[in-house]
């Protein structure tokens, strides 16, 4: 039985160790019947974290950008690609002794390819409480069209 499980074990590429550990955890949760336990290992090195959702008319991209001002952001749309770049500056306290320093400071860039064509002229951006929300309208060609049946 154990041998059979190892034969079914997925092939890991071992790219990002934290991502791979999360993948192994999800696999074990699935095997043990505990999928969606709610615990996730954060993906180190990916900033900003984003969610991309889709409605009938728009793609909605939300990026976590705590401590980043709107003036420090550069958002570019090219074809179906969105690139968010900028800089987060966290001034270290020269009088403090750090026991843990996980918040990073510096330049970042995140590029995403959207699943369909977009209308770049109508993209709207809003930064509220450290969350950047991009409302990206789908192009007319990409929107679903209801076909009426004749007869």
Automatic annotation (TrEMBL):
InterPro entries cross-referenced by the UniProt entry: A-crystallin/Hsp20_dom (IPR002068), HSP20-like_chaperone (IPR008978), Small_HSP (IPR031107)
Highest taxon of the lineage: Bacteria
Signal peptide limits: none
Pfam families from the UniProt entry: HSP20
Segments passing through the bilayer: none
Domain (SHSP) ranges: 41-151
Family that this chain belongs to: Belongs to the small heat shock protein (HSP20) family.
Protein name: HSP20 family protein
Biological source species: Desulfosalsimonas propionicica
Taxonomic lineage from the root: Bacteria, Pseudomonadati, Thermodesulfobacteriota, Desulfobacteria, Desulfobacterales
């Amino acid at each position: 039985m154990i041998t059979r499980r190892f034969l079914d074990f997925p092939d890991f590429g071992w790219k990002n160790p934290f991502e791979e550990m999360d993948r192994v955890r999800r696999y074990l949760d699935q095997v043990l019947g505990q999928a969606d336990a709610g615990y996730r290992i954060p993906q180190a090195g990916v900033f900003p974290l984003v969610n991309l959702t889709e409605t009938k008319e728009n793609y909605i991209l939300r990026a976590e950008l705590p401590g980043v001002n709107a003036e420090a952001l550069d958002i570019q749309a090219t074809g179906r690609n969105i690139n968010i770049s900028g800089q987060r500056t966290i001034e270290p306290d020269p009088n403090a002794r750090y026991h843990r320093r996980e918040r990073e400071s510096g330049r970042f860039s995140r590029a995403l390819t959207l699943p369909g064509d977009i209308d770049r002229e109508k993209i709207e951006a809003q930064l509220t409480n450290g969350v950047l929300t991009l409302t990206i309208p789908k192009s007319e060609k990409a929107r679903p069209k209801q076909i009426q049946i004749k007869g």
